[in-house]
Amino acid sequence: MTAAKGSSPAMNPRADFDAIVVGAGFAGMYMLHRLRGLGLKTRVIEAGQDVGGTWYWNRYPGARCDGESMFYSYSFSDALQQEWTWTERYAAQPEILAYARHVADRFDLRRDIAFDTRVTAATFDENQRLWRVTTHRGEVLTAPFCIMGTGNLSTTNLPEIDGLATFRGATYHTGTWPHHEVDFASRRVGVIGTGSSAIQAIPMIARSAAHLTVFQRTANYAVPAWNHPLTAEEVAEVKAHYAELREKQRWTFSHNMFEPAARSALEVSEAERQAEYERRWREGGLGFTSAFTDIQYSDAANQTAADFVRAKIRAVVKDPATAELLCPKIIIGCKRLCVDTGYFETYNRDNVSLVDVSSTPITRIAPEGPVIGETIHAVDALVFATGFDAMTGTLLAIDITTSEGNSLRDKWRDGPTCYLGLAMAGLPNLFIITGPGSPSVFTNMIPTIEHHVDFIADAIADMRRSGRTRIEVDGAAESAWVQHVADLAEPSLRPSCNSWYVGANIPGKPRVFMPYMGGVPAYRRHCIEVVENGYRGFNLS
Ligand code: NAP
């Protein structure tokens, strides 16, 4: 049964709604759909003016998904996946946003979403057993359940550089790109950063700008996308077998259809190793680092993959000094691997220059542009491709507390703690979709979101059936899970560099490796066992 507008909440008659969901990206939209299906009165609150989350905000030139479109999409409705036709191997941002909008229309989601509204605080009232959720408009909405679909990469990181306010030109951040066309023709543009966003934006900006200066602090690895239009036959083939392909996808390591590694990079001959890297390189995309089992665990194995990519960079970039600057020195896969289209080739253009800011940082921004050492790099526009306060920034921007005096900001002072990346001790009836401690950012997000949303919706449905109204994580279960997440990361090379996975990109952020590295199948099995054992690790009353 679908809850009609204005109907009464089913679970707590004192509340305005049964559930409040924060965010109308792919997480919030599917959460709304599932809760509606349970007959629960749900309100989604969204800061943007439309659905789409990440794909609403990140509309910089070249923005495109690194996950293959036929599998970076919802699987919950076969009718939906049959009727929607992706046009490219990797969908560009406008197409993904169009898909999100289509889903919102098709399932009539918008009538339960409040757009242009930011949640500022949420407090759990123990006596009434409900969350009071406050918005920037001053409204207070109540519901027994509050579900955060706020995303992992949704609060932008704008570095505090002296003099930025004095800059005479236009400034942009890739994560909050304007909705109107930005024309860089005949302008000198500076891009700060060389992560995934920058690596997509730089080739596009270089085509239109008079001159592009890239300020690079850490050179990054990128594997070619080899993006191409999907043929009608390719689409039809996947659609004909979607049911079994989706089931296969659910049990892959990262919800991606990569061929899993079978061997160590060190147990094969040099020729076999090179052939395997070459084969993966030609396939393109993030599956490159799945070539061997130990790339993320053995320094020597990692070096073989890193050397392969560095040789590719040297073969493409004509100026040897620029090529050396672009060759990453860090562990491959330590920071998120990038997927590119013509990124390294861009440095062969006459209108592109690369400035190394690793040893001498950008000390200040003068009215004319960034200052490095004694040199002012004059630009007309500055693009910050400087990333996000990942995984925790958006949740900590909301003042989340309880009437018993618990607070998320206090709880996470030394780093995030969360059970299964789904819920937390001390904060009853609050769920996070893909929170810290879940496989989240190591996976294809849409199927991961579907898994979490189903877990949460099923838990609420089970509570309703059994007449229980309060669910809270047990402190010991949470601590054990946090330890398990840390133990999984410890033997890997990943925690060793200054990535956003450990919060190192944000000054003062506690250094904690946040995502779960054990892979989707192990995580799914944990979740199944939790439910089969009466929600082990949760206290229900
Ligand atoms: P990011 O990976 O955090 O990269 C930020 C870049 O800005 C880094 O190169 C960083 O250098 C640089 N930077 C930050 N502060 C700086 C400063 N003060 N001076 C100079 N350089 C500075 O951010 P992102 O590129 O937006 O990507 C974030 C994540 O979003 C990705 O890892 C990925 O998970 C996701 N994403 C996915 C796609 C896709 O699917 N196609 C596209 C974009 C983003 P350091 O490395 O030295 O810190």
Give a short account of the largest sheet.
5 strands, parallel
Q: What is the level-2 CATH architecture name of the largest domain? A: 3-Layer(bba) Sandwich
Radius of gyration, CA atoms, in whole angstroms: 24 Å
Number of helices: 15
State the CATH superfamily name of the largest domain.
FAD/NAD(P)-binding domain
Q: How far do the termini sit from each other? A: 26 Å
Spans where pLDDT lies below 50 across 5 or more residues: 1-5
Helix content: 25-40%
Q: Output the CATH topology of the largest domain.
A: FAD/NAD(P)-binding domain
* CATH class wording of the largest domain: Alpha Beta
Strand order of the largest sheet: 3-2-1-7-19
Mean pLDDT: 97
Q: Based on helices, strands and strand pairing, what is the structural class? A: alpha/beta
Q: What is the percentage of strand-forming residues?
A: 15-25%
* Annotation, overall tally of beta strands: 21
